[in-house]
Write a structure and sequence with these properties.
Elements: E1 3-5, E2 12-14, E3 18-19, H1 26-29, H2 32-44, E4 49-51, H3 60-72, E5 78-83, H4 93-108, E6 113-118, E7 122-123, E8 131-132, H5 133-149, E9 153-159, H6 164-172, E10 178-182, H7 206-213, E11 216-220, H8 251-259, H9 263-266, H10 273-281, E12 289-290, H11 297-309, H12 314-325
Parallel strand pairs: 3-4, 4-5, 5-6, 6-9, 7-8, 9-10, 10-11, 11-12
Antiparallel strand pairs: 1-2
């Protein structure tokens, strides 16, 4: 398994991480014995980053990951979790952050996590469940620094969804060590310029900002919530089709555009859309580790096999770019 330097942290993370989210549902609703076997297999294959959150199954993902890691006791794995603040917490962010990480550590059966991410969207003006860049820098950062000083986390991160200008402002402040960034074949804008009138949020080459700030990148929505499998069928334990992030405004539109990328397969660049999407995500040099949601052990094996094939060749990236050009001017 390839290891990549993770920003300025000094961590070396496996290019394939282990996502414990609710979309695939494996670490929330999966069979406990299969969960243990699959995590043991991942560790044996060299995976050393495991990503969870209290929101995944109302703590079930953290409990299951904690149970398994406590039993396996691997020597060198990094664990990340997250806090999502509710509007009622905004008047007492420090207390809410502390309570969240204390609960997470209890469920994970750990004294600390390696990365603690803010899970709220970050917007220009805030409102609802979003936080403004100013709130993040003035209120969240001191609260995060406090739990780091208490030894509850090593590094601080954000989930980089929301308004692009606000995300860049927070990244440029260099208060965070990690950013979880949307990057996939339907929306590559964190890494490159989009064609004109492209139907997706423009993340404005956020990878340039993370590189300049020394912020490590965790690639999220690599399969666009499952749309880049090319199939509408969902496993019984998977969550319902999720709301898209950064790409189309509906899952069906994402799925339709994903299917228009099938020439990558007929041209021989990959055996499946999921393989192409996984290899695309690791092709950008700014990428530290990627998370691929899963519902079954086989889906982990598929992601592992894709990563082991390496990055997409330049000819595949050029073909992808030509296919993406056809999306320009369409309604998002």
């Amino acid at each position: 398994m390839q290891l990549r330097n993770f920003g300025r942290t000094g961590l070396q993370l496996s290019v394939l991480g282990f996502g414990c989210g609710a979309v695939g549902g494996f670490m929330v609703r999966g069979d406990p014995a299969e969960q243990e076997r699959t995590i043991a297999r991942a560790i044996d294959a060299g995976v050393n980053y495991f990503d969870t959150a209290v929101q995944y199954g109302d703590g079930e993902s953290e409990k299951n990951l904690g149970r398994i890691l406590q039993k396996l006791r691997p020597a060198d794995v990094a664990v990340g979790t997250k806090v999502r603040l509710q509007p009622g917490d905004f008047g007492g962010i420090s207390d809410a952050v502390t309570a969240s990480i204390v609960g997470s550590l209890s469920r994970l059966q750990r004294d600390r996590v390696d990365i603690f991410h803010l899970h709220n969207p970050i917007t220009t003006s805030g409102g609802g469940t979003t936080l403004s860049a100013r709130q993040v820098l003035e209120d969240v950062v001191p609260a995060f620094e406090r739990v780091r000083a208490q030894g509850k986390t090593r590094y601080l991160g954000i989930t980089a969804v929301g308004d692009t200008d606000a995300l860049r402002q927070v990244i440029d402040a260099r208060a965070f060590d990690s950013a979880q960034i949307v990057y996939n074949m339907l929306n590559p804008s964190a890494g490159e310029d989009l064609p004109p009138n492209y139907p997706a949020q423009d993340y404005g080459r956020l990878f340039d900002a993370t590189a300049a700030a020394g912020v490590g990148v965790v690639g999220i929505r690599v399969l666009a919530g499952g749309a880049l499998s090319g199939s509408a069928k969902r496993h019984p334990i998977a969550g319902p089709a999720p709301a898209p992030i950064g790409s189309a405004l509906s899952y069906d539109a994402d799925l339709e555009r994903a299917r228009r990328l099938l020439p990558l397969l007929t041209d021989g660049f990959a055996a499946s859309l999921a393989e192409a999407a996984t290899r695309f995500a690791i092709s950008h040099p700014a990428m530290g580790t990627i998370l691929v949601g899963m519902a079954t052990p086989q889906q982990f094996e598929d992601a592992l096999a894709a990563v082991q094939k390496g990055t997409l060749p330049s000819a595949a990236l050029e073909r992808l770019s030509s296919l993406q050009q056809a999306f320009s001017g369409e309604a998002r």
